[in-house]
TrEMBL record:
<feature type="signal peptide">
    <location>
        <begin position="1"/>
        <end position="22"/>
    </location>
</feature>
<dbReference type="InterPro" id="IPR051459">
    <property type="entry name" value="Cytochrome_c-type_DH"/>
</dbReference>
<dbReference type="GO" id="GO:0046872">
    <property type="term" value="F:metal ion binding"/>
</dbReference>
<dbReference type="GO" id="GO:0009055">
    <property type="term" value="F:electron transfer activity"/>
</dbReference>
<feature type="domain" description="Cytochrome c">
    <location>
        <begin position="27"/>
        <end position="124"/>
    </location>
</feature>
<dbReference type="GO" id="GO:0020037">
    <property type="term" value="F:heme binding"/>
</dbReference>
<keyword id="KW-0349">Heme</keyword>
<keyword id="KW-0479">Metal-binding</keyword>
<dbReference type="InterPro" id="IPR036909">
    <property type="entry name" value="Cyt_c-like_dom_sf"/>
</dbReference>
<keyword id="KW-0408">Iron</keyword>
<protein>
    <submittedName>
        <fullName>Cytochrome C</fullName>
    </submittedName>
</protein>
<dbReference type="Pfam" id="PF00034">
    <property type="entry name" value="Cytochrom_C"/>
</dbReference>
<dbReference type="InterPro" id="IPR009056">
    <property type="entry name" value="Cyt_c-like_dom"/>
</dbReference>
<keyword id="KW-0732">Signal</keyword>
Length: 141
C-alpha cells in the first residue's frame, strides 16, 4: 500500500521537523556558556578573567568589569542579588550607583539570566560554591 506508506512518511518527516524546531529554539536549552560569550565576555572576558587592573577605578570614576572566576567577588553575592544585578543592573541593589554594567532584562529572559549565572557558578571551586550557596540560603528574598 504505497499510498499509506507515503502518508506515514510525511507524518514522520513533520514530527522530525517539529522536534528539531522545538529543541534549540527554546531559551532554556541555550547553554549558559554560549549566553555568557554572547552577552558578558566583551567586558568580563572569555575566560571570566575580568578587565585588566579591575580593582583600579577608570578616569570616569567607575570600576572596570571584575572577573567572575573565584579571584573576583561575584561569589560574595547571593543568587537573588546576582539575578537582580544582571537583570536590572547594579543600581537595582545600590540605588543611584554609577556603573558601566548594564541591566539585561530587555535582552535576556529570566531563564537565560539563570542559565548564565549557573554557568558562572559552575566554574567555581567547591569552597566558593559552598559559601555562595550559604549566602543564597540566608537571602531567599
Ligand atoms: C559593558 C560591559 C559589561 C557587560 C557587557 C557586562 N558587564 Fe557585568 N559588570 C560590568 C562592570 C563595569 C561591573 C562592575 C560594576 C561596578 O561595580 O560598577 C560589572 C559587574 C557585574 C557583576 C557584579 C560582580 C560583583 O562582584 O559585584 C555581575 C554579577 C555581573 N557584572 C554579571 C554580568 C553578566 C552575567 C553579564 C552578561 C549577561 C555582564 N555582567 C555583562 C560590565 C559589564
Amino acid at each position: 500500500m504505497p499510498c499509506h506508506r507515503s502518508a506515514l512518511h510525511a507524518v514522520l518527516l513533520i514530527a522530525a521537523a517539529l522536534t528539531a524546531l522545538a529543541g534549540p529554539a527554546r531559551a532554556e536549552d541555550i547553554p549558559g556558556r554560549q549566553l555568557y560569550v554572547d552577552h558578558c565576555a566583551s567586558c568580563h572576558g572569555v575566560n571570566l578573567e575580568g578587565q585588566p587592573n579591575w580593582k583600579v577605578r577608570l578616569p570616569t570614576g567607575r570600576l572596570p568589569a571584575p572577573p567572575h572566576d573565584s579571584s573576583g567577588h561575584t561569589w560574595h553575592h547571593s543568587d537573588r542579588q546576582l539575578f537582580r544585578i544582571v537583570k536590572d543592573g547594579p543600581g537595582a541593589i545600590m540605588p543611584g550607583y554609577q556603573t558601566d554594567m548594564p541591566g539585561f532584562g530587555a535582552v535576556m529572559s529570566d531563564s537565560e539570566i539563570t542559565a548564565v549565572l549557573d554557568y558562572i557558578k559552575g566554574t567555581w571551586p567547591d569552597r566558593q560554591r559552598e559559601i555562595q550557596a550559604a549566602k543564597s540560603a540566608a537571602d531567599p528574598g
